[in-house]
Specification:
Number of strands: 5
Helix content: 40-55%
CATH topology: Rossmann fold
Strand order of the largest sheet: 2-1-3-4-5
Structural class: alpha/beta
Order of helices and strands: EHEHEHEHEH
Radius of gyration: 13 Å
Number of domains: 1
Largest sheet: 5 strands, parallel
Distance between the termini: 13 Å
CATH superfamily: Response regulator
Number of helices: 5
Length: about 120
């Protein structure tokens, strides 16, 4: 699987990528915001992990645009964010996010959320 990791914080991108490596995933592409992520997204990407709060284009805006693209309509999107209010989670799901993690997180939680979405990758 190839992951697109989208977060404006280089430190947070590194944490996510290190966590992915700890659970056995080494193929990643990084983007600092939704606009850059749309440029870097191609058919080789099989899974997206995005933050919500980013400049230029938020994670929810990015997900909406991605979902409108034929090549992005079915790719699993996992949001990893500090936003924990129930209404925020609902807003993210309405935008097309498949699952949600509130920061901070552990590699085990990341693995659990990815594993839950793997049937969508295989479909």
């Amino acid at each position: 699987m190839k992951f697109l990791v989208v977060d404006d914080s280089a430190t947070m991108r590194r944490i996510v990528i290190n966590s992915l490596q700890r659970i056995g995933y080494n193929d990643t592409v990084e983007a600092a915001d939704g606009q850059e992520a749309l440029v870097k997204f191609d058919s080789s990407i099989t899974f997206v992990i995005t933050d919500w709060n980013m400049p230029n284009m938020t994670g929810t805006e990015f997900t909406k645009v991605l979902r409108a693209r034929p090549d992005g309509a079915r790719v699993p999107v996992l949001m990893v964010t500090a936003r924990s209010v129930k209404d925020d989670i609902l807003t993210a799901m309405e935008a097309g996010v498949n699952n949600y993690i509130v920061k901070p997180f552990t590699p085990a939680v990341l693995k659990e959320k990815i594993d839950a979405l793997l049937p969508a990758v295989a479909a």
